Amino acid sequence: xxxxxxxxxxxxxxxxxxxxxxxxxxxxxxxxxxxxxxxxxxxxxxxxxxxxxxxxxxxxxxxxxxxxxxxxxxxxxxxxxxxxxxxxxxxxxxxxxxxxxxxxxxxxxxxxxxxxxxxxxxxxxxxxxxxxxxxxxxxxxxxxxxxxxxxxxxxxxxxxxxxxxxxxxxxxxxxxxxxxxxxxxxxxxxxxxxxxxxxxxxxxxxxxxxxxxxxxxxxxxxxxxxxxxxxxxxxxxxxxxxxxxxxxxxxxxxxxxxxxxxxxxxxxxxxxxxxxxxxxxxxxxxxxxxxxxxxxxxxxxxxxxxxxxxxxxxxxxxxxxxxxxxxxxxxxxxxxxxxxxxxxxxxxxxxxxxxxxxxxxxxxxxxxxxxxxxxxxxxxxxxxxxxxxxxxxxxxxxxxxxxxxxxxxxxxxxxxxxxxxxxxxxxxxxxxxxxxxxxxxxxxxxxxxxxxxxxxxxxxxxxxxxxxxxxxxxxxxxxxxxxxxxxxxxxxxxxxxxxxxxxxxxxxxxxxxxxxxxxxxxxxxxxxxxxxxxxxxxxxxxxxxxxxxxxxxxxxxxxxxxxxxxxxxxxxxxxxxxxxxxxxxxxxxxxxxxxxxxxxxxxxxxxxxxxxxxxxxxxxxxxxxxxxxxxxxxxxxxxxxxxxxxxxxxxxxxxxxxxxxxxxxxxxxxxxxxxxxxxxxxxxxxxxxxxxxxxxxxxxxxxxxxxxxxxxxxxxxxxxxxxxxxxxxxxxxxxxxxxxxxxxxxxxxxxxxxxxxxxxxxxxxxxxxxxxxxxxxxxxxxxxxxxxxxxxxxxxxxxxxxxxxxxxxxxxxxxxxxxxxxxxxxxxxxxxxxxxxxxxxxxxxxxxxxxxxxxxxxxxxxxxxxxxxxxxxxxxxxxxxxxxxxxxxxxxxxxxxxxxxxxxxxxxxxxxxxxxx
Length: 917
Known about the structure:
Blueprint: E1 2-7, H1 10-16, E2 31-33, E3 47-50, E4 67-71, H2 77-91, H3 100-117, H4 137-159, H5 174-226, H6 229-298, H7 323-340, E5 352-357, H8 363-381, E6 391-398, H9 408-412, H10 415-426, H11 432-438, H12 444-450, H13 457-464, E7 472-479, H14 499-512, E8 518-526, E9 540-542, E10 552-553, E11 556-557, H15 565-571, H16 576-585, H17 596-610, H18 627-639, E12 643-644, E13 661-664, E14 670-674, H19 677-685, H20 700-704, H21 713-726, E15 734-736, H22 737-740, E16 745-747, H23 749-753, E17 755-757, E18 762-765, E19 799-801, E20 809-811, E21 817-820, E22 830-836, E23 841-849, H24 857-864, E24 870-875, E25 887-890, H25 895-899, H26 903-910
Parallel strand pairs: 1-2, 5-8, 5-9, 6-7, 7-8, 18-21, 23-24, 24-25
Antiparallel strand pairs: 1-4, 3-4, 10-11, 12-14, 13-14, 15-17, 16-25, 17-22, 19-20, 21-22, 22-23
Helix pairs in contact: 2-4, 2-5, 3-4, 4-5, 5-6, 7-8, 10-13, 10-14, 15-26, 16-17, 21-26
């Protein structure tokens, strides 16, 4: 606290009494003391500061009088007394401006104040005290008081260890900070009132200066009227001085207005700081309370509880497909974890499980099934290290479904607290009595807000596993990691400081640490994770999610009956969310007239609602992607070619596409595309481009019509599909045979590697039976023993008549035609010519076989092919693979890999009797 004491004689005090501000009694004021040449000092921790030199310390003061200030440490009581006195000081009118002695005192006081206090309180740059009171004695008094207040505040800040105005006290309690900021607000309000008073004073001075100017002008006029030259000259000087004073007074008004504006800004800023300080106090209070209930919970034995389900859709109850394969895949990383638990903390010996996929492909379901699969691994492996473990518990936390992350800096605070808070929240249902008795909040937002900042997962594990740490396996899963800040920067070094990477590191810490329990960590995210993560020494084990191949609950089919049921199920491509939409669309209340169009329309509507970005497949402009993009994706899917991660297909980023499944190579640098037919149907329905006509292979209406009486449906489908395969590559592109028949069994390996020139095929139907071997293909061959060495009449070698009337004939010397043979031909069912990289022409002969009908491979080949020709056998039932030369073989076991997006149509075309009537 700074207090100004002025020493003066009694007579001087009486003469100047009306000049002084009327402040409260006691030493918390500006007051006069007479007859002493010194200033009484306080006891305790006070500090005396001389403010003016000896005898000239006050207006008309006697010898030995001096002006001094006292800085005290009295917890602000003096401060508020002076603050209350200030408004009265600010509004009083004095005549100090006319007293030159007073002005001299002010000037000297300012200089001395600066000098004496320079070592203890750092004044802000630009805070010039000089001249504040010049010409306006009242303003000098007010400013002096204000500066004392500033110094008081600076002193208080320094006492609390703070270097600059507005900073928080280092190490001080939030309550002390709030009190300090309230003092800052009081100061700002005082400065505002001072500035307003100065503004009024300046305005009054303008009036006085204008009046003086008027009097000077009157005096000049009088002098000019009487013709007194000397008086005229003096009057002109007075007018000039008066005009100058008017200008100066107007300038001071402007300066005062600026001060008022600045003071108002300070007040507003101080109010904001007070608000923030009060919030900090409340937060500190809440944290203090939280430590109480949280500590009560963690100090006792808590029962384990499974928590809320990660998945609440109808598919959550379906039997889990692919469990056996996943258990087999999990055994390798689980064995490594067990062998190195407690032995070392090498990150390469402690794998982190990672699953990633497009939306709706089973990430949450996988995480829900992971604990039981880990338990199966433990039982199956049964090694010495695993025999000590007696149970498996799972903490499955999610960044979705009511516990999504909030502001990291103010709500979540750090990764350990993020994980631990949700682990503890999972236990609430199993420990209701304990949670209620401890006073834990009942909603997650309040629960998270009150969790202590230093809460860690180890605290929760200790509370649940008291005495059982060494015999328990803990599965820690974090679902929906794409919801954390920094997911988009996961591949960059700068992303390592973001919440996404920090949470992943916390899971790794628990997996890696030598102390019990054994933690199996797994993270899941929509879209891609692993191949795009920044480099790390942590071993990562990627797990591919299985397709949903059966829609059953406890072995009972859950798909309502429909004529196209099997086809519709396959057309969902094993996509869990799409199958859920299908089951709901087939319910009696949703099915409408029961037509395929109505069912598919309902499925498409539900998928569009679930995935609003489906039509744009990762394009930022939101428009439906173009035909070229559709073809690029379909070509990649049908050709089975590897796509480099990061490359776009047309305008589409397939790695961000809904309903598209990506299958990565071991290095995760390239991927294969798997597309369900429902996706293709939705896209083709949105466009009428002729360029996409080849992709419309057998729509649903075809399967509602009666099958052909001649049993040609299998042949029709396969020839149409072979034409479509040619469109999966560019015209005249050099491709291996293995790409043209991706998914088939090819013998020998040299045939798979054989390079041929691709052409976009056109399909025709022969009017008569023709030969298919290279040297005679296209020539008539009505019977088994026909030589077929001559062409039909009026035709050239390798030409044949076709049913397409606009063409009439085609030549199998051309490499862009495929001819479907007439029924019962003693040759292959269809034929086309391939040009090899060396320029020779060979025949690709397609033979479609039905059911379990016998296939004498050598006999069939002899009637269909020459020595170097390729023999393609396509069976519509599941059989063993025969041995053969230049053989491409497909049976039901290869349908999914070979036909891909069209596998449902392959099954339906192969066995129409499976469709329910």
